[in-house]
Structures are given as C-alpha cells and as structure tokens.
Amino acid sequence: MRYTLGAAIVSRPYESASHMTDTPVTAQPNAAPAPVVMLRQLAARPLSLLGALVVTLFLFLAVFGPAIAPYDYDEIIRGAARLPPSADYLFGTDRLGRDVFSRVLWGAREIIGIPGIATTIAVFLGASLGLFLGYRGGWVDEVISRALDSLLAIPALLLAMVMLGTIGPSPVGIVIVIVLLYLPIVARVIRSAALNVRASGYVEAARLRGETTAYILFREILPAALPALAVEGALRFSYAIFLTASLGFLGLGVQPPSPDWGRMVNEARDGFARAPWALWFPAGAIAALVIGVNLLADGLRRIFRYEGTA
Question: Which of 9, 34, 171, 277 is 20 to 30 A from 216 via CA?
Fold first, then answer.
C-alpha cells in the first residue's frame, strides 16, 4: 500500500505546537484538499464527475424515491402482469403485475441505506483500530493484525452466507456481516498510514507535551490518514452494495415484500423471455450505482494520489 499527499507523508496541515501560540497557521502542500477544491478537481475529470453525479442521483432517489413512486412497492395492478414499458409503467410490470419503476425507486433506500450504515460503522471502527495498532506497535499489534488477516483469508460471500444462514437474513444481519468483512481491510490500511507517521516530529512533540493517546491518534495522526480513509471508504461502499445485491439474489438479503434489487433480478429470471424488462432495470440500477461509486472512488484516489487495496 502506498499513498502520498504532496511532498512528504510526515508533514502536517499545521505545526503541532501552533495551538500554543498566536502564530498564524499556514497549510502545508500535503493538506487534504478543501471541499471546494475537491469539487473543482472532480469536475476536471469527466468520468469522476459522472460518478459523483450518478451517486448523487441515487442518493436523491434513496431519500425521495418513495414519495415520487407512482405505486407502492407491493401493489399488484389487476390485469397488468408483464406489461412492457410505457407511459403508464415506465419500466413495465413484473409477473405479478407490480410496477417495476416503483419497486426500483423504493428499493434504492435499502440498497444504499444498508451498505451505507454498515460501511460507516466499518470505517469508523476500522480506522480507530488501525490508528491504535499503528501507534502502539509491539506484540499487541502483531497479535491483532494476524487475527484480522485470518478474517481476510475467508471469501467474503462464503462468510456472509454462513453467518446469515446462522443468524437469519435481516437488515441487521447484513450490517453485521459487512462490518466484519470490511473492518479488517480498513484497519490494515489505516495501520499502514499510522506506521508512516508515528515517528515523525509532530507526534514526538505531542508525546513530550504529555498529550493523551486519544489526542495523538485523532488530532496528530488521523489527519495524515484521512485521504486513505476517504478512498477506502468509497471502495468499501461499492463492494458493500454489490455484496448486498448478491445476498438478495441468493435469498439472504432483505426479505419479501421489501423490493430488494438483487431479489428482483432473481425473480425475473424465469420469465426473462416474456418480460426481460423486469430483469433489465433492477440489474441496470445495481450496475450503474456500483460503477458510479467506483468512478467517484477513482477520482478521490487521483486527487489524493493514493494507491491502496483493491
């Protein structure tokens, strides 16, 4: 894993002792770009901008989709089974006569909400653990790091199937699975970032001032790891979306009657020859969302000049 944030990884956006004086603080070249600067840099990369727009669109649908959907997700329209796309049914209807467009809109909340919550928890816990391990070092680091590596050796989908088969498919179960799968990856990445800066001058100065471990981790070391954390968070989010959809396809996702996109694809397989649109649109939505998040993550990687785990 390698990442650079300007001229040197050990630099800081400010001098460690500057808060003890009245001297103005000047940002260093490696400081993480401000939001406005990041938006300008994303706009300069058409594919990254496209990814950001796609993600924004799906976030909008996750929030407002149910309000603009013409039908409830489980409403069966009598005499409207397997109708092709039209002005009345933009994405057509499925084998039961449910409006596919409405189901896709309703399902956006789950396909984004569950992976979003799980990824946020995984990133927070993984970053905290990675900072501690990278700063602490020694046998504690070795033991916990090897335990995390053992989790990474298990195929993600296999572990998810075993766990959900044990505790039962549910939104909470999916969140737990995603957290357990991606926490070790985030921890390993942030640990590497912390190892690069723990011997730097500003960290030593903080130790000499008698700062607490929590202060050193989150005020001194974390800013240098934020670019890596942002990129890894975006990547894990895209993988979590795909994993959630895969579990739905296998029947281990959110259970009926909720409109899970993965399960919609599975249900449309048998009648694909008669109503292919019932499969095209949920599958296309999954692909568009995953591609959009990956394009956004690639844009962040280029902005921060970061290379990490896949």
Answer: 34
Where does the pLDDT of residue 9 fall: very low under 50, low under 70, confident under 90, or very high at 90 and above?
very low
DSSP code for 2 = E
Distances (CA, A) of 181 to 101, 142, 152: 32, 20, 7
Task: List the domains of the chain with CATH numbers.
Answer: 43-53+79-307 (1.10.3720.10)
Kindly give, in sequence order, each residue whose CB lies less than 8 Å from that of residue 161, ignoring residues fewer than 6 positions away: 247, 250, 252
Cβ distance 94 to 107 under 8 Å?
no
pLDDT of residue 116: 95
Secondary structure (H, E, C), 190-225:
HHHHHHHHCCCHHHHHHHHCCCCHHHHHHHHHHHHH
d(C-alpha 42, C-alpha 36), whole Å? 10
C-alpha to C-alpha distance for 94 and 79, rounded to whole angstroms? 11
Answer for the pair 222, 131: CB distance below 8 angstroms, yes or no. yes
- If you search the block for the tokens 């001058």, which residue do you land on? 201
Q: And the tokens for 103?
A: 């189901």
102-106, 139-143, 288-292: segment of lowest average pLDDT: 139-143
On whether the CB atoms of residues 249 and 304 are closer than 8 A, the answer is no
| pLDDT tops 60 at residue 307 | no
- The closest alpha carbon to 245, from 235, 259, 257, belongs to 259
Q: Please report how many Cα atoms fall inside a 13 Å half-sphere around the Cα of residue 9, on the Cβ side.
A: 19
Distance, first Cα to last Cα, the chain: 10
Residue 76, classified by CB atoms within 10 Å of its CB into exposed (0-12), middle (13-18) or buried (19+), is middle
DSSP state of 85: S
- Among 109, 122, 110, 119, which Cα is nearest to 234's? 119
Cβ(159)–Cβ(101) below 8 Å: no
Q: Are 254 and 171 in contact (CB under 8 A)?
A: yes
